[in-house]
Amino acid sequence: MPLPSAFNLKPVLEMGESDYQCWRKDKLRRYIPDLENCLVPIQNPLQLRPAEIRQLREIICSNNFVVYQYPSHPDYDSNSYREICRQLGLSRSISNPGADADNVTKIQDRTVYDAGMNHRSRYIPYTNLALNWHTDGYYNNQDRMVRAFVLHCMEPAQAGGVNALMDHEIAYILLRDENPQWAKALCDPECLTIPENIVGQKVIRDQFTGPVFSTDPATGELYARYTERKHNAVWKDTPVLRKAASALAAILRTENRWTAEITLQRGQGLICNNVLHNRSAFEDNDSQERKRCLYRIRFSERVQFLG
Ligand SMILES: [Fe+2]
Fold first, then answer.
1. What is the span of the domain harbouring residue 14?
2. How far is the CA of 45 from the centre of ligand 1 (A)?
3. What is the CA(167)–ligand 1 centre distance, in A?
4. 146 within domain boundaries
5. What's the pTM?
């Protein structure tokens, strides 16, 4: 496994064309398209072996995501995956309205079925419906940037619940390959506005306007914030931006070798530097105890390759 590219020393969005082309070639060469090669079996989440940590970091360095797999007969409590996060340098978690005191969110279908009426959550993640392509926290301002998140599977669905993943660096490359002007347009700091979130009379999140692709001021890495949703997302209305946004949506929708599809199984977890992702609709088991259940925790740090 190669070391991270020296081209990463300069932010991708600030590179001249020739450096960018070198970085692009290196990124595509390092990317691991086969999901089975992105799976790292671990013996003990409470104390990872040095080789396991190295492998997790190396795969993230190539793909911005990795999947760990617990031993087949795990004897660890439901919080043990947080120890994996800690050992990878992820400790500053970010709260959200559905999270518990430790900023862990239980992702389940919270629809309440009673008297023939279905009371769905107003937030799609807490239903069994499909989730469009997005990055986590696309509605957050720069003080609450989600740089990484972890999804740990306690129980898979009976059917569905597939996550598709696309490394945002790959998405940027594919878009710029199609038309450099489109990639540039999505770096416009005014390109995507998410209106404020009001519950009852209370504003629980302010409006935020920002780019899709930007340089993370804290790390210098390429950062993406994106949502495919049409409702509650306002794109700056210029001809080039309209084309750029629809080109990116088409890249994400089109089957290609860069998109990884994973149905997390019990004891598996996805660790990622907030790559683009979606979720297919799912069907739960009839048993309440065996409903699809994933734990999600978001971080203001990303997983770095330390060499
Ligand atoms: Fe998400």
1. 6-299
2. 23
3. 13
4. yes
5. 0.93
